């Protein structure tokens, strides 16, 4: 066997050059296959809407105190620059992600869930439970002041929509079939949330 042929082969028949470029290729594939989580907006940021009171929480879930801020109001074009197309469809147009496909439906880590649009603290892993629905489910919000509930008569039924109080993002719905303590099930879209580990 000549020297050039020997240097171009290893035990698996792959060239040395190919072996050296594989980590780069796999890193590129990982970036395509697993999108990065969005960055967390500053929950103290003021918008241009009406004044609202929210409860601030540190990333480790400790209550910091109440804050009065102006609600975040943006045009669709501004939201589209900030959000992915799927996040925009869910949070700004009230779409629903398919069950068992969201990034957090099966998340069991400890931390808090913030609004993907404005960073407002919404739910804690301490109140998350397995509902079997394929969406992240919680039995109560981290602070009732941080969410808003409205009647939703779409799809020919009466439901209660859950929104972020600070930016009016659609989060999901709340149902009266949750576990004891509250008996509620806040059924949310992963696309409306950012999970912050503590």
Structural account:
This protein has 198 residues and is of the alpha+beta class. The chain has 2 domains: 3-33, no CATH class; 51-197, Metal Binding Protein, Guanine Nucleotide Exchange Factor, Chain A (Beta Complex). It is 20% helix and 28% strand. The strands form 3 sheets. Strands 5-6-10-9-8-7 form a 6-stranded antiparallel beta sheet. A 3-stranded antiparallel beta sheet has the order 4-3-11, with no helix packed on it. A two-stranded antiparallel sheet has the order 1-2. A hairpin with a 5-residue loop joins β8 and β9. The longest helix is centred in the first third of the chain and has 18 residues, at 16-33. The radius of gyration is 22 Å and the shape is globular.
